[in-house]
């Protein structure tokens, strides 16, 4: 089970269930290295989920500040770089992921308008 699939609510629910069941198993049979390892993995995955969600929130706050400052190029660069790093959490269907994609699309469109590509043919003047 990784961060790549399913909704965050279901992923969090599954991790909580796994942590609970593995913890109970260790109470009954404390000398089970595989169970202990699986519990450590589930706890690490839950921590990774929360860390990724926190990073997504920070990135959105930074993007909003850049938007307010009309720093569209910086905003677009920030979101483009963050998209790869946050790809797994962006696939989880959180409302923040939708906001992220909207910001990224809009900032990219604005940057294209204010910084047209040098590969474009020259404008025809009358």
Jot down its keywords.
single chain, 126 residues
**Given the structure, what is the number of helices?**
5
Shape: rod-shaped
DSSP strand count: 0
Share of helical residues: over 70%
Please state roughly what percent of the residues sit in beta strands, choosing from under 5%, 5-15%, 15-25%, 25-35%, 35-45% or over 45%.
under 5%
Largest sheet, if any? none
Fold and architecture overview:
The chain contains 5 helices and no strands. With 126 residues, the chain is mainly α. Helix 1 (8-28) runs antiparallel to helix 2 (33-68), helix 2 runs antiparallel to helix 3 (72-85) and helix 2 packs across helix 5 (95-114). The longest helix has 36 residues, at 33-68. Mean pLDDT is 87; it is low at 1-5.
Topology:
Layout lengths: L7 H21 L4 H36 L3 H14 L1 H4 L4 H20 L12
Helix pairs in contact: 1-2, 2-3, 2-5, 3-5
TL;DR?
By secondary structure, the chain is mainly α. The protein has helices spanning 8-28, 33-68, 72-85, 87-90, 95-114.
């Amino acid at each position: 089970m990784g961060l790549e699939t399913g909704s965050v609510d279901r992923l969090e629910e599954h991790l909580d269930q796994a942590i609970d069941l593995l913890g109970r198993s260790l109470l009954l049979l404390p000398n089970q290295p595989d169970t202990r390892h699986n519990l450590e993995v589930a706890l690490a995955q839950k921590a990774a989920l929360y860390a990724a969600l926190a990073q997504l929130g920070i990135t959105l706050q930074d993007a909003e500040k850049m938007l307010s400052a009309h720093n569209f190029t910086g905003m677009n660069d920030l979101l483009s770089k963050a998209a790869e790093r946050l790809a797994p959490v962006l696939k989880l269907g959180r409302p923040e992921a939708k906001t992220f994609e909207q910001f990224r699309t809009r900032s990219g469109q604005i940057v294209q308008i204010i910084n047209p590509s040098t590969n474009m043919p020259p404008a025809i003047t009358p």
